[in-house]
């Protein structure tokens, strides 16, 4: 095809520490209920057999440090602090023992969620898209290359709102580990460079509103920040 009827949407990308080139985001896979204490606060059982997923459009990517207008259609907009895994190589039907070779980098991410719409969908056994695939809801901090990151496990993962700590756990609390998630996802998808995985959030999720400042971190990674703006 030699021409488009209108300009295609721009590629969304995230910065990488120590690189001038950015990481172009292909797909965004998100893991649900991957910390037991969060599943409990959501009133649901953890499935330890296999992870489950939802997706966000890559156009939902937003850089850390910005202001996200309070989104339309919700009265209960929640933060979820997450470890982000960025893939730099293809993976299809890989075992957990091979999965980590596909990991290019890690980062801090926020899975911002219209909780009221997600829960209404859950109740009616409908898809979660309106709750989860929110414009600007995949907030990403600059990535750190995997080779520069210590083995995952002991790192603290935390989030604060206006300075008050709301989420505080460790990566070792993940029910399904990063290699297990990649191996499982690769049984359903031909994973590609540019795909990212948001690995789930610890307990302590809650609402934010206009003027609130969210900050979060994972030991060893660049911290993340987001300000909630007035509704449009
Ligand atoms: Mn999440």
Quaternary structure state of the chains depicted = single chain
Shape: globular
Order of helices and strands: EEEHEEEEEHEEHHEEEEHEEEE
Chain-averaged pLDDT: 97
CATH architecture designation: Alpha-Beta Complex
Task: Give the end-to-end Cα distance, rounded to a whole number of Å.
Answer: 37 Å
Amount of beta strand: 25-35%
CATH class: Alpha Beta
- Report helical residue fraction: 10-25%
SS-based class: alpha+beta
Sheet of most strands? 8 strands, mixed
Quickly count the helices. 5
Bound ligands: manganese (II) ion
Give the CATH H-level superfamily.
Answer: Fumarylacetoacetase-like, C-terminal domain
Labels describing this entry:
232 residues, alpha+beta, Fumarylacetoacetate hydrolase, domain 2, 13% helix, 33% strand, binds manganese (II) ion
């Amino acid at each position: 095809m030699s021409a488009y009827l209108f300009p295609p949407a721009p590629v969304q990308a995230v910065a990488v520490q120590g690189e001038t080139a950015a990481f172009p985001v292909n797909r965004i896979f998100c893991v649900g209920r991957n910390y037991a204490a969060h599943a409990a606060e959501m009133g649901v059982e953890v499935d330890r057999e296999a992870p489950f997923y939802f997706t966000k459009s890559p156009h939902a990517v937003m850089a850390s440090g910005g202001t996200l207008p309070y989104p339309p259609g919700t009265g209960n907009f929640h933060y979820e602090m997450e470890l982000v895994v960025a893939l730099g190589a293809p993976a299809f039907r890989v075992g957990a023992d091979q999965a980590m070779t596909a990991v290019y980098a890690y980062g801090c991410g926020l899975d911002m969620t219209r909780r009221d719409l997600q829960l209404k969908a859950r109740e009616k056994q409908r898809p979660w898209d309106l709750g989860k695939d929110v414009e600007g809801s995949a907030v990403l901090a600059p990535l750190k290359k995997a080779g520069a990151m210590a083995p995952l496990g002991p790192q603290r993962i935390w989030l604060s709102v206006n300075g008050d700590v709301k989420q505080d756990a460790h990566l070792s609390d993940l029910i399904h580990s990063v290699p297990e998630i990649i191996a499982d996802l690769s049984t359903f998808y031909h994973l590609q460079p540019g795909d990212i995985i948001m690995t789930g959030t610890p307990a302590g999720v809650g609402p934010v509103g206009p003027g609130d400042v969210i900050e979060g971190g994972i030991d060893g990674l660049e911290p993340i920040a987001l300000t909630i703006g007035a509704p449009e």
